[in-house]
Write a structure and sequence with these properties.
Length: 439
């Protein structure tokens, strides 16, 4: 029996940073289905555009009343009566209605909120769990519990310290299941908290729940993580991941040094002198040393989003040793993924649904990456809601990796808790990705 959309309403809620975002309530013949959209701080310039009001007298211009208007007055009338299970048709109708390449007319936040809610309604119409429904939409039949990447130390745009890298993560690949991975993450996080309190005397928390102590270098952060892992006896169970977010410390011709004339430049140590400025070659040397000295298996956005030449060189140097994850480089955009595959720029996709704006397009991006033999990591954003959609998404796609911040605060835990629930529900029918991440 076909389940049709009966109504769509939207409202403004606040995300984990206290900024407005949009929540949609979609009613179908099977009931009420909600979805809320996250927002990023460190955003790629090629991402789909979230629509903000721009009224400085209200939430400093970050209100989403225009997006709400577009949901209720522009999009909803076109979707009432549509079959909830026709995900691609629903998404394509909204894309056409918007008519822009980056969803700037109606807003990617308005479009995605409906796309997510419709996906939940579609699953209900088929009387199956959301993760199973997503599996069917993506052509995946093997459910896999992902390895969580816990963000435990913050730098860059997510903190106020001197770390150029934005996130330092731990990946419990040696856990026997997802529940043990969560236990490992929590114990490591708590031990790190105790050490930071004793040694640095502060407990500054970054946007994603990781600690942001007054560290002076990336090396100091990595040494601290090593110390914590060893003190917890997790040396054989935990590996390290980095989100460099290099586009955030990329600078344009800030150095007068002849050594860097006409080259890509990175203000690597937040120092405007030539000492702190690195070109692509120097950055590659830094990453080579890091993976030699530390148990790093994943590096996200190691270079600026358009430094294609640098990415190609980096892949040749370390692409067989670690996963090089494209975030700002790819923005979950199929065209940019195809370019990266062709030019061998990276070997893993960071999948963020609000970067592209619909579930159908996100699934297409996933399928493109997997066909190329890439790894895929589903990701949250720094400005989150307690919507747990991406937990089902990671399991349904069978991608094997998820990044949802520290094991701290409801906004991050909602996703991890959902995966634990799925693990209990499926029992022996599902496996933990674990050390397969190294293959």
């Amino acid at each position: 029996m076909v389940s049709k959309i009966k109504s769509i309403k939207a409202k403004e809620i606040l995300d984990s940073r206290g900024n407005p975002t949009i929540e949609v309530e979609l009613v179908s013949d099977d009931g009420l289905f909600k979805a809320s959209v996250p927002s990023g701080a460190s955003t790629g310039i090629y991402e789909a555009i979230e629509l903000r009001d721009g009224d400085k007298n209200r939430y400093n211009g970050k209100g989403v009343l225009k997006a709400i208007h577009n949901v209720e007055k522009v999009i909803a009338p076109k979707l009432i009566g549509k079959d909830c299970s026709k995900q691609k048709e629903i998404d394509e109708l909204m894309i056409k209605l918007d008519g822009t390449k980056n969803k700037s007319k109606l807003g990617a936040n308005a479009i995605l909120s409906i796309s997510m809610a419709a996906c939940r309604a579609g699953a209900a119409s088929k009387k199956i769990p959301l993760y199973e429904y997503i599996g069917k939409l993506s052509g995946n039949s093997k459910m896999i519990l992902p390895v969580p990447s816990f963000n435990i130390i913050n730098g860059g745009r997510h903190a106020k310290n001197k770390l150029s890298f934005q996130e330092f993560m731990i990946l419990p690949i040696g856990a026997k299941n997802f529940s043990e991975a969560m236990k490992i993450g929590r114990i490591t996080y708590t031990r790190l908290k105790n050490i930071i309190e004793q040694r640095y005397g502060d407990l500054n928390i970054g946007d994603e729940g990781g600690f942001a102590p007054n560290l002076n270098s990336n090396k100091e952060a990595l040494d601290l993580i090593n110390e914590v892992i060893e003190s917890c006896n997790y040396k054989n169970k935990v590996k390290i991941g980095i989100d460099a977010a290099a586009s955030e410390f990329f600078v344009k011709a800030s150095s007068k040094s002849k050594d860097f004339e006409g080259s890509k430049e990175y203000n690597f140590i937040f120092n405007e002198s030539s000492e702190g400025i690195k070109n692509s070659e120097k950055m590659i040397e830094i990453y080579e040393k890091i993976i030699k000295d530390y148990d790093v298996i994943s590096i996200e956005d190691p270079l600026e989003q358009d430094d294609f030449e640098g990415y190609a060189k980096l892949m040749k140097k370390i692409g067989k040793k670690v996963q090089i994850v494209g975030d700002d480089l790819l923005v979950t955009n199929k065209e940019r993924i195809q370019k990266a595959i062709k030019e061998k720029l990276c070997n893993a996709l960071l999948l963020k649904i609000n970067q592209i704006g619909t579930i159908s397009e996100a699934i297409d991006s996933y399928k493109t990456a997997k066909k190329a033999g890439w790894k895929v990591m589903v990701s949250h954003r720094s400005g989150e809601t307690n919507d747990n959609f991406i937990g089902d998404l990671a399991v349904g796609l069978g991608c094997g990796e998820i990044k949802s911040g520290a094991p701290f605060t409801i906004y991050r835990l909602a996703k991890y808790d959902r995966i634990e629930d799925i693990e209990k529900e499926l029992g022996k029918k599902v496996v933990y990705f674990g050390k397969d991440i190294l293959k």
